[in-house]
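A further point concerns the way the authors explain their paired sequence and structure data. For illustration, here is how one protein appears when written out as sequence plus structure tokens:
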Amino acid sequence: MEIPDKLPFSKRRLRPRVVISYIFDYVIIIACAIGFSILNKVEPYHQHFSLNNISIQYPYAVHERIPMAYALCISAAFPLALIISYTLVLDGLFSHHKPQDTVSGKRKLRGPHRWKDRLWELNCGVLGLLLAQGLAFVITQALKTACGKPRPDLIDRCQPRAGSKDLFPGLSNSTICTGDPALLTDGFRSWPSGHSSSSFAGLVYISLWLGGKLHVMDNRGEAWKALLVMIPLLAASLVAVSRIMDARHHPFDVITGSMLGVVCGFVAYRQYFPPITEAWRKGRAYPIRTWGTEPAGPDTVRFIGSKGESSTALRNHEEERMDPPDLPSSEHTRPNASTYLQSSNPYVSNMYNRRPHDHDADGGAWSSSEDDVSNGYEMRHGQAMGQNTGAGHRMPQYDSSNAYVSQTQPLTADTGIYAPDTMAGPGRPLTNMPGRAI
């Protein structure tokens, strides 16, 4: 079988190792499923126990409050349905910058994302969810089999022979049991809790995914977003607590299983998505993998394109070169323009260095990850607030560190920004100098 040289939803040709790497991700997930099924059939280690230990004398609950099938629906099926529906239908539906149809002039209802953008997000979202669940299941089952800790209802499963008692000195073992062998085998799989690990793996993952899509860590602090992000965590906690209520696990088993699930969910999310604290990325999946390049920093991510093309996530920087920014002539002649455009404020908008009308000129094919913030005017990080210099009137002289800097409009002489310069002298406006446009 020949390896395809491109992904199904991308027209760009990719090196074979790029395609292989994503195929290998799915192979790892399948291997985790196979490993879990094998470990589930292995006889676990049987720890010795005491017949007088009251912590393992709970009655066996025939009917569980949340069986494993229901737990999987909560921690896997629900997140999968949410990822599919949001990515293919809701993503971009409420964007503030919907592109216009070139024929009718009406704004597109579905938002700025093309189908290949949505399919890429869907691919990464499903991969992360499956990876989180696969890691949680195989690690949990390996620990259960190796440890062999008795469940709280072990004595009821064991059904010791009449007259059985602990050895002196010593403890009892499974040879005194007369109960169902299958129930007895499962009775030595208490640590860690599989319900807890799988629930927290899937629901922590979807909580992070949803937090990235809702920009929950931006500078607006909207409480309803935090509430939505916390709902999956509440559901995972309820599933975990039900295992204590059913006497299937000790509290320590549930706590450690939950911690394992949190780690699996976090690790899986970070394989394909940026941190939710980097709100300017807006929860968009990482681009196609490259090798031999330095990791991109925040400024690099914010200044990666200029044509308004919504294929940012599909660009392979190893295979292609970015188009040069489409800047006006006044910006090409401006000295050290990057000094005014770049900012350490993570929430400053860049619009990919485009003019305000660029997204209309290229037919609306741009991504919602380029949404503007406050029309491109933001304070420089760590500086005191000054008056907006885009108001159209002449301002008294003041230091440029207090000025707003537009990320979407070229800095011209009309803005009246004063900046210190070695050629202009202290307090002298650069706009008075011939040939200097700022």
Observations:
- Strands lie at 377-378, 405-406.
- Residues 329 and 412 are 11 Å apart (CA to CA).
- Confidence is low (pLDDT under 50) at residues 302-313, 316-425, 427-438.
